[in-house]
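Researcher: Structure prediction, please.
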Amino acid sequence: MAILPYTIAIAAAAILTVRLYDRLTPRLLGVISFVLVALGLLLVAFTVSNDWGTIPVIVGLIIVGLGEGTLLTLLFNVLVSASPKEFAGDVGALRGVVNNVSSALGTALGGVVAVGLLGLIITTSFAQSNLPATLEREINFDNINFVSNDQLRTVLGQTTATPAEIDEAVVINEEARLRALRAAFLILAAISLLAIIPASGLPNYVPGEIPRDEQEAVVKTRKNAASAT
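Model: Predicted structure follows.
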């Protein structure tokens, strides 16, 4: 349920962005979109807890959704308008394929970063804790993943860990989950800010406005024609 506002925000932004084309340039829209994604991820990183239904987290996801939805429509229109009309269908299809592939790769990257950080944090916290070394040999630290407290208790119940040691391990895992998620969101926010650099290469004029270089070309052509006359 907490993800629904995020998906609705993407759909709403993708539809309403068209209304901004006559007032904002593609470059400005692209920069604003990546800034929104970064701000939303930062808000989620600093407010995320074991309850994803908290209002600040949902607001952060909505901000991310607004940025992503704007980018979806913006990049599609820029690509189609920059291509010959006879290739518009092919460009749209390729854009859809690239969007799906990039979404899958981005999700995979985010998952790898989060799980990698989780394993590193748990291993470090375990070494600094009072848990016995014998328990370390019973736990497969090469297969660490995000699990709930109940799942972890079930796994540790099959080891020689005492109830007190299980409680301590659950606390370590709970803190490691949050730290890994926050760090992953911060890294993704940094990537979103870096994406502003390629976004600055988008067209810097609104539809219907003649770019400066084309204006200069038109003026030069008229001058040459006047001189010839």
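Model: Residues 4-207 form a domain with the Growth Hormone; Chain: A; fold (CATH 1.20.1250.20).
Researcher: Thanks, that helps.
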